[in-house]
Amino acid sequence: MKVKLFAYLRDYTGVKEIEVGHCRTVRQLLKELCGIFGKKFAREVFDGENLSGRVIVLVNGMNILHLENLDTELKEDDEISLFPVVAGGR
């Protein structure tokens, strides 16, 4: 499956996108990515066993918070996008 990374997550990983073998759930996928990209990435996406408030995960354009969160099931042809939460503006 294709995983796209945005903003400073690209700095943490050194890639804009990566192909990952099949993972059954978003949780499994994120843990796989943590194994690839290391502790700094893991601290950004997880808060203990939960998704951190610093990242937004979309599966085929849908926020996982509106699906089954980390237990959202994935298919081989899904596209996952990871965005950092950005604050600011007026």
TrEMBL record:
Pfam short name (any one): ThiS
InterPro entries, per the entry: Beta-grasp_dom_sf, MoaD_arc-typ, Mopterin_synth/thiamin_S_b, SAMP1_3, Sulfur_Carrier/Prot_Modifier, ThiS/MoaD-like
Protein name in UniProt: Molybdopterin synthase sulfur carrier subunit
